[in-house]
Amino acid sequence: MRIIGWICWRWKMGIIWKFFFCCCFIVVTLSIYGDCLSLEDCILKSYFSKNEVLTDSSFQDLLQDELSKFSCKLLPGDPNPQLTLSGLERRLIGEGSHRHLSSTIQLQVPPQSFPLQSCKLVMIERLPSGVFADPFELDHLFHHGAYAGIGVFGDTNLELPSVSSNRSAVEIHMNFEHSISSGAMSELGIRIDLPLHARYAPLHESGYSEVAFGTPDLLVSCSMEGSSGMRSCLIVPSHDSNRLRTDVVWKIPCGIMSHTNVVSVVTFATAFVSTLVIVFASVLYPKPR
Q1: Is residue 52 a part of any domain in this protein?
Q2: Strand (E) or helix (H) holding 66
Q3: How far is CA 173 from the centre of its chain?
Q4: How far is CA 90 from CA 94, 243, 245, 259, in A?
Q5: pLDDT of residue 171
Q6: What is the Cα–Cα distance from 285 to 273, expressed in whole angstroms?
Q7: d(CA 98, CA 87)
Q8: Which structural domain, as residue segments, surrounds residue 93?
Q9: Looking at the 3D structure of the chain, how many domains does it have?
Q10: Residue 102 domain-assigned (yes or no)
Q11: Would you say the C-alpha torsion 113, 189, 229, 61 has a positive or negative sign?
Q12: Nearest to 42 by CA among 214, 203, 219
């Protein structure tokens, strides 16, 4: 009977270990590669298939390569509309370590040349190392119609602090919500809210770690008729940098370096006293038989 019990115990432990290994593999895979949901052409997926770490210079090189290969100017009849980014305002919404990065985007385009029904806005948010986007949260929002498509790539490990994590990026596809005619131009407006989470920040004497967000990459992806049938192409809107308000800084609370000795002593004393209480309680009040 002991042998049978030992075999059953080993069998159960094997099943538990395999289950744990599979869960870890899924989490690591999602953290490194991310996923594209309802995106036929995902720029970030192409980048992370060749690179493990996100750097601005290498990403810009790939973006320029993608634009040269999928430019709408390459299609017959010069269907490339003259898009202008007339406004971009960004701000953080909420308090604490879980906030939303809100981006309000305004585009101007001649209405007679813009195939609105066949185009989507593409925003690529290259996040700083101090924050990350939860792919499971964004997947939930996607299935509730918040986005036309979304993909999260890079390091999305929740437990890693800023000093031990790599950067991540989010690619969002959105349909144009409305068009407001204004003379010879049409005004296209769209708002994107991206939920973000703060990582454990490194120590700083001010008690806060500042995380600055850069300007997102904004593109328009359209499906147009080419020589070999329908194909996707990319348009980069022109813009006046003086009309863009993109400076966003998140002050994340962190530990103060000068407090480390006090915190260490108090933590050790608390743990030591708690251990003594448990030992004395076990000796003075033994479990009745």
Answers
A1: yes
A2: helix 56-69
A3: 13
A4: 13, 12, 7, 35
A5: 94
A6: 18
A7: 26
A8: 39-259
A9: 1
A10: yes
A11: positive
A12: 219
148 φ, ψ (degrees, to nearest 5): -75, -25
Burial 113-146 (b: 16+ CB within 10 A, else e): ebeeeebbbbbbbbbbbbbbbebeebeeebeeeb
CB contact at 8 A, 162 and 202 = yes
* Residue 169 located in a structural domain: yes
List, for residues 201-225, the tens digit of each pLDDT value.
888 888 888 899 988 999 888 876 6
- What tokens were used for 219? 């593109």
Which parts of 145-268 are beta strand (E)?
Answer: 149-154, 168-174, 178-182, 185-198, 208-213, 217-226, 229-235, 238-239, 244-245, 248-253
pLDDT in tens, 240-264: 766 677 789 999 988 888 888 898 9
List, for residues 125-173, the tens digit of each pLDDT value: 999 988 999 888 998 999 988 888 898 998 878 788 888 888 999 999 9
Q: What is the maximum alpha-carbon separation in the chain?
A: 91
10 Å CB burial of residue 278 (0-12, 13-18, 19+) is exposed
